[in-house]
Design a protein that fits this description.
The protein has about 100 residues and is mainly beta. The chain has one helix spanning about 85-90, and strands at about 10-15, 20-25, 60, 70, 80, 95-100. Helices cover about 5% and strands about 20% of the residues. It is globular, with a radius of gyration of 13 Å.
Length: about 100
């Protein structure tokens, strides 16, 4: 396992909504206490903070980095990909988003 934000291993906690793992600190998880973690960075737009409901029902989650984007802030160079093999191996299938490569 590795942290979705910094890429390192070690002591990790899981996102309560998906199989993403994070270090429990302000830099990676944004909180110091596991009870405070409501979701990882894949559940809000990296630019405006909109969640799935406020983004019209869809977020574009990057397959290679911790960012997600609403349609208004989708990077122009983003490439849509059909699957996220890492997530599917963990039996996680996103129903309210699309995976992208944002670079």
């Amino acid at each position: 396992d590795f942290c979705q934000v910094c890429g390192d291993g070690g002591s990790l906690i899981g996102c309560p909504r998906c199989p993403i793992a994070l270090h429990l600190n302000r830099k990676c998880a944004g909180v110091q206490n596991a009870k405070e973690l409501m979701f990882c960075t894949h559940h809000n737009c990296a630019e405006c903070g909109k969640n799935t409901s406020h983004a019209g029902g869809w977020l574009y989650r990057c397959n290679a980095c911790p960012n997600a984007y609403c349609e208004d802030h989708l990077p122009p160079t983003a490439r849509i990909i059909n699957t996220n093999e890492r997530m599917e191996k963990m039996n996680y299938f996103v129903h309210n988003g699309i995976y992208i490569h944002c670079d």
